[in-house]
Amino acid sequence: MDIRKINEDYSVSPQIEAEDVDIVSLLGFRSIVCHRPDREQADQPAFSSIAGRAAQLGIEVRHIPVLSTGLTDEAVGSMIQALDDLPRPILAYCRSGARSTKIYEQALLPR
């Protein structure tokens, strides 16, 4: 897994698999946020498979799909809410980690 730490509370990674959730748990993450829409690519796992394994391990999850075309106000609002609600540290993922980084930056901007 290629996990990039943004700060103590938030890290990003490229796509994870259900079996990666065990590693995520061992690394101490308490929440996972997926910014990748289901079926963006044929070979990616469905969010439900990640969420199912996370539930078994007591990790909270949130699905905030962000299209590769860009962020929406709705997605940023959902991310702000997730940051308020979810236990930390949080691991967020998308295809490469870029959308998960960008939405976090946008969620931290003054409103």
TrEMBL record:
Domain (Beta-lactamase hydrolase-like protein phosphatase-like): residue spans on this chain: 2-104
Coiled coil spans: none
Pfam families: BLH_phosphatase
Name the record gives this protein: Oxidoreductase
Upper classification of the organism: Bacteria, Pseudomonadati, Pseudomonadota, Alphaproteobacteria, Hyphomicrobiales
